[in-house]
Amino acid sequence: MSLEPAVWQALGTVLDPELDEPITDLDFVESCTVSPSGEVTVGLRLPTFFCAPNFSFLMVADAYDAVSAVPGVTGAVVSLADHHASAEINGGVAAHAGFVGSFEGEATAELDELRHTFLAKAALAGQDRLARPLVDEGVGPDELAGLTLADVPDSMELRRLRDRRMAIGLPYEDDAPLLIHPDGSRVTAAQVPLHLRRARLQRVGIETNGEYCKSLLKTRYSEEAKARA
Amino acid sequence: MYEKDGEKYFIVDAHSHFWDASKENWVEGKEQFAKGWIDCFYGYHQLGPPETHWDWEKYLKVTPEDFERDMFVEGHVDHAIFQSTYLKEWYKEGFNTVEQNAQLLERWGDKLIVNGRFDPREGDAGLKQLEADAQKYKLKGVKLYTAEWNGDSRGYKLTDPEAYHFLQAAQDLGIKNIHVHKGPTIWPLDKDAFDVADVDHAATDFQGLNFIVEHVGLPRIEDFCFMAVQEPNVYAGLSVVIGGLMHARPKFFAKVMGELLFWVGEDKMTFGSDYNIWTPKWQVEGFVDWQMPDDDQFADYPRLTTASKKKILGLNAAKLYDIPVPQELQLPTSADEAMQPGEELVEDKAGAQA
After folding, report:
1. Which residues does the UniProt record annotate as the domain MIP18 family-like (chain A) (predicted)?
2. How far is Cα B36 from Cα A202, in angstroms, rounded to an integer?
């Protein structure tokens, strides 16, 4: 059986940490080939030459880990093209050097804290995605403050929110409140209006970045741009 | 000045450039960075309306005549503020230095303000240069690009002790407007380079300075808004917001404008075309015509009035820079005035209805 679908599925679990979307949906995977012996070669690309090196590193490293974990894969090479730090990132991931080892003298820590920060942002934005339709139906602050995740109909968005919360140690089970502060505590009815303002702003922020990135990627790899290069 | 439907708008383009990204100016051995930088800009350029797109070659460097036409003849701009960005690691004579910008002062000195820059990593020599620039160009503002590469360093924070020396010096020299432009790199590289927490601290510690965060902190508009609501001397520079979203992503433009109007307010937002990433003409005209959509999802965002547009397009920046505005075009704005933070927001007491 061909390994390719499983490899693509694995790549689909890799998120752009800033945009909270899979790199496969974002069209960041330029190529993916699997040799008969199970060697996988993945080429990644990003919207600009100067995309932040820390997030870029995370995507390459996560893609490497995800692909390597697919049963039957015997080896993986993941490389990022057309980026100002391609050499450091590709070399570092291949050598399992970590972020600090890949950017010697430039970094003082691995990227766990950075990842945590962006999962927390995604978990805030997710509250707007789930609560906004309820607000539109006329559900008020008192009721919203009392809702738990079990009260919200199952959806991809709900599962995404649970995943993000679980990853950073926030309450994610059925009895967890729908609206929570960054420390996991329940948002009170009086705090609901401003909390929802914040959650929406967070969502607008992430989604606007996503729109920029998609536009820039499309332009960067357009026929016209290829003709110029 | 721009006139539409009997209303007159005094236009201050608070974020513009006169850059040289021509191949002759690329540093040998660093060509890929010089090209990568301008290619990145060219990507943004293409988010404008197709009829405003230029050839890549032309985009590398415009002439003074291009500048005059695009800004003052066709662009409706009354007054432009040049923001300097050096990038001497990649561009031999710099990408967009004070000296380059100042060449145009001789021709349009009554319509141009040249902002300086500093780099806290340049120590005493940098401080002396800042003093000299401040005297020579009567600086009222500086632009700081925190992701600028300098030797082995990939950037800095405003809270670095050296940066505080420079901010103090700027304040002492009468430079009151600090334009902060975040980029993708920083030291240390494991931190989020776009985080504006350092601006938050600096704005608290330097109450005599105004901090204009360019492209409203994008891609961290949420961090920027949470900060700006608490810091009355923090402003939203709209460069890239109008240019990058109004045409290409109108729905997101409306949302971003709505968020800014709510959290930051119309007295603290300033227009910048980011010339020549884009030309000002279509941005000014489009913004004057723009209205928040009637759709339900935008219902609880503040609305823009003609007066709000006049302030955003020019009167706020004119006040920050003491630019004289003809009497009949003036409107009151609280820009550049000491204010209290948005307390009702900070203390969780109010906000819009859920």
Report:
1. 6-76
2. 30
